[in-house]
Amino acid sequence: MVSRVIPVDPFDLVIFGGTGDLARRKILPGLYRRFCSGQMPEGARIIGAARTETDSEGYRKIVSDAIHEFDPKSAQCGKLDAFLSLLEYETVDAMGEAGWNELRPHLRDGHVRAFYFSVGPSLFGILAERLSHFGLVDDESRIVIEKPLGHDLATAKELNATLGAYFDESQIYRIDHYLGKETVQNLMAVRFGNILFEPLWNAQHIDHIQITVAETVGVGGRGGYYDKSGAMRDMVQNHLMQLLCLIAMEPPSQFEPNSVRDEKLKVIRALQPVPPHHIVRGQYDATDSEPSYREDVENARSFTESFIALRCEIANWRWAGTPFYMRTGKKLKARTSEIAVRFKPAPHSIFGEDKETGSQPNELIIRLQPNEGITLSVTIKEPGPGGMRLVNVPLDMTFAEALGEEAEAPDAYERLIMDVIRGNQTLFMRGDEVEAAWAWTDPIIEGWQARHDVPKLYDVGSAGPDDALMLLHRDNRKWRDIKA
């Protein structure tokens, strides 16, 4: 199977922070892959803008080095020189006047103007104001911003108001790269494109749902930022919340941005407050060879969590009584992101209750990383004589195996940037979604701060603190094993 490539129209893309880590690792290599595939036209322009003192030729060297370092396979596609010819550069002072007038000649009338804010969140509002002040915004302009989208509800509202003073909501693209993953979009296709699942997608047939995002790395060089945020703000409020919404939302009337986002917003607003005994927080401990979380962030009295597990419930007719378990953490036993939908067992087993002969509940596994794909476990008879012995086997659709190398899924950033150019906001968060997520998150954080909760220590390479296991054991359930 060969994937179909639909080219976009020529555009002008300005990357603020164009020499930074995100631009070098993700944005520019992703754009190059789209260029190699034929989706990005030769009439496009990419303009790097940053404080770094260089010129367009120097910037092309920076980008060439980044592509060779972070995507050496694509660097061999034979189009690198043609791609580099699309690049320009301007040294711009985000806080001042320098470089802004020089940026204007790079922008063409009648073309989409996309401004990617690949910078710290403190500059989002400033860049929006500068773009407006220097007359760089027109009806075809749009901005792309990364998380964190505020630190709490108050700052999220302030950010939305600031951006809204210069851009219409239809021009603001709040990017969450999890929503650009092939499997996440296939989740919607599986749910709403097949009659097989939707009649069963409710509390009557689903026992519980687990969402796991596990990392093997620590906080690395992000210690200063992370210790002020923690796993709740850094992961749950955005990435895991978006996955929860896609799993739990009602079918939208059509696959259209506001219809999809309306249904996601309803899920967030239906989330129940989470009591303290349904929350487990942890910090990774030191080993003989690795530092502890507190050593990594250089704060010996830190109460910030590097791991969190929650038991959540959604108060609506579809999901009343069905628990949603979410967990995420650093320095765990494997790097994996998955959603597990555990169905209820058959109401009556004709094969008896013996584990050797009885059927097991069906389970739908949506795997985001690594090896994106979807697996459905079903019960069959074990081959061979000797009676009726049942086994669970997977119906597996690992995309790399099922569709072949020619259908290799694009990186999330590739897809999302092309959606920005097309003006398709389906996979981007709306301002009221962000605020609703913070309105649910803030009381949870305020609660453990008021109680002076101390995170539980857990071993590097484990599945998190033991209390997280008990979170499910109390319900006579258990977490899926974390494995690559």
Structure commentary:
The protein has 484 residues and is an alpha/beta fold. It is built from 14 helices and 15 strands. The chain has helices at 21-37, 56-70, 80-84, 100-103, 124-133, 153-164, 182-192, 223-248, 257-270, 293-296, 399-402, 412-422, 431-451, 466-473, and strands at residues 11-16, 45-50, 87-91, 112-117, 141-145, 172-174, 206-214, 279-284, 307-312, 324-329, 336-343, 363-369, 373-381, 390-398, 456-458. It has a nine-stranded mixed beta sheet, sandwiched between helices. β13 (373-381) and β14 (390-398) form a beta hairpin. α1 (21-37) crosses α2 (56-70), α1 crosses α12 and α8 crosses α9. The longest helix has 26 residues, at 223-248. It is globular and about 75 Å long. The mean pLDDT is 90.
Task: Offer a few descriptive terms.
globular, 19% strand, nine-stranded mixed β-sheet, six-stranded parallel β-sheet
The helix count comes to 14
The major sheet is characterized as: 9 strands, mixed
User: What is the count of β-strands?
Assistant: 15
Percent helix, as a range, is 25-40%
Strand order of the largest sheet: 14-13-12-11-7-10-9-8-15
Shape: globular
> What class, by secondary structure content?
alpha/beta
Radius of gyration: 24 Å
Q: Report the average pLDDT across residues.
A: 90
Low-confidence stretches: none
List the helices and strands and how they pair.
Layout: E1 11-16, H1 21-37, E2 45-50, H2 56-70, H3 80-84, E3 87-91, H4 100-103, E4 112-117, H5 124-133, E5 141-145, H6 153-164, E6 172-174, H7 182-192, E7 206-214, H8 223-248, H9 257-270, E8 279-284, H10 293-296, E9 307-312, E10 324-329, E11 336-343, E12 363-369, E13 373-381, E14 390-398, H11 399-402, H12 412-422, H13 431-451, E15 456-458, H14 466-473
Parallel strand pairs: 1-2, 1-4, 2-3, 4-5, 5-6, 7-10, 8-15
Antiparallel strand pairs: 7-11, 8-9, 9-10, 11-12, 12-13, 13-14
Helix pairs in contact: 1-2, 1-12, 6-13, 8-9, 8-13, 9-13
